[in-house]
Amino acid sequence: FNDNRLDSQNSIWYNNEYGHEELVVNTLAAPPPVNKSASNSAVLLSAVLDQQGFRHTNITEFPPRKYAGSTSEQTWSQSTSDIDFCEMNQNIIVRCAGNEGGDKSKTGYISTDNGITWKEFESTPPFNSDGYLSGKIYISATNCNNIVWIPLGSVPFVSTDQGKTWKKSNGAPV
Prior knowledge:
Helix content is 0%, strand content 28%. Strands 4-5-6-7 form a 4-stranded antiparallel β-sheet, with no helix packed on it. It has a 4-stranded antiparallel β-sheet with strand order 8-9-10-11, with no helix packed on it. Mean pLDDT is 81; it is low at 70-74. By secondary structure, it is mainly beta.
């Protein structure tokens, strides 16, 4: 709530938010614009619990929707644990996600259009944890094919083909 009339004797409080939902933000990423004239480039990417996350093209406005993914759109995961973008090509973004509740499934997604649409990775590394959080994910700044995913309680896994296959990292501590 807010009241901009601090010099007034009578406060008038108003709510200046839209689409309120209690959220836990896991990660924020701020990619540079895809090109300098692109007004539709993501300026902020959020990874949140319970609502997947949001692609922000204007930080002064509420995003029109969460990441694409529902029964009527694409595959859907309840909570995004982490998100990262490729510095060489900011159109390529990866995120890892999971579901609460019965199945506690975990998966990862890749976007090749600056976070507008998402495709589930063709495979996922094995998970040791029973929870719904899927760990941390990183994409190379210079080679957008290379992704490192660190599931909770596990060694890192590496993909050199944008998430089609995963290999256990050698020498990394658990």
